[in-house]
Fold this sequence. Notes:
The chain contains 8 helices and 18 strands. It is α/β, with parallel strands linked by helices. The chain folds into 2 domains: 7-125 and 275-287, 3-Layer(aba) Sandwich (Rossmann fold), CATH 3.40.50.10330; 132-267, Tumour Suppressor Smad4 (Sandwich). It is globular, with a radius of gyration of 21 Å.
Amino acid sequence: xxxxxxxxxxxxxxxxxxxxxxxxxxxxxxxxxxxxxxxxxxxxxxxxxxxxxxxxxxxxxxxxxxxxxxxxxxxxxxxxxxxxxxxxxxxxxxxxxxxxxxxxxxxxxxxxxxxxxxxxxxxxxxxxxxxxxxxxxxxxxxxxxxxxxxxxxxxxxxxxxxxxxxxxxxxxxxxxxxxxxxxxxxxxxxxxxxxxxxxxxxxxxxxxxxxxxxxxxxxxxxxxxxxxxxxxxxxxxxxxxxxxxxxxxxxxxxxxxxxxxxxxxxxxxxxxxxxxxxxxxxxxxxxxxxxxxxxxxxxxx
Length: 301
């Protein structure tokens, strides 16, 4: 079999100070597997600086984008979301290793690394392409903010409390006016994130759709709705209350009355690589405890 990759980027971010030692040890383990496969290790420079991973060299994100063939991301889903947004425009596939909590998209457990990573680096993997959103905030017709999101674009109320008042339009046609704590526009990947906690449906990643989920709407008949992903979705603020727009809950901007948040599917995609035999429904069973029978004692409790 011909070699699948040549240059392998490695990213890792400690969630808390106490996780630094185990993270460093695992990153060194990953680097050792990469070198044993005869491949070039390219540590993200910020990862290298924080964790002091000598004697490896660090690379800036642009250099990784130009040279890397694949990226291994060690962390939680939040770490993966940030790296995915940065590298998607370069078309670099991502291998996610879970060093966080839930792990919907960082699906490889740390203890699985010796068994699955060598095979994946040799070309044995499942490919999974995920849609992204690109969004802009317009104020009096001018674009004042741009961002992308793998999971979701969220309009939420400000710190002063009170509901947000907004109008939703799809391809320029008004869908509804609403007062709510917020509203979520999620990709299929994001349907298992904030949208799920707001009682939205789960969309399979292969679906060409988006889900629009109001958060605690004043009008209880306003329910989540699935939309085709080739539509342009607009949210216009119609009230003077404080509000903000969030993108994967990792970047945000304040909104003013009359601001319009316009979102659409991005031309870029996020490419995730999984071990051979990966199954999306197995992930749901494990993460959402669908494999736990209602008769189990701890469920009843």
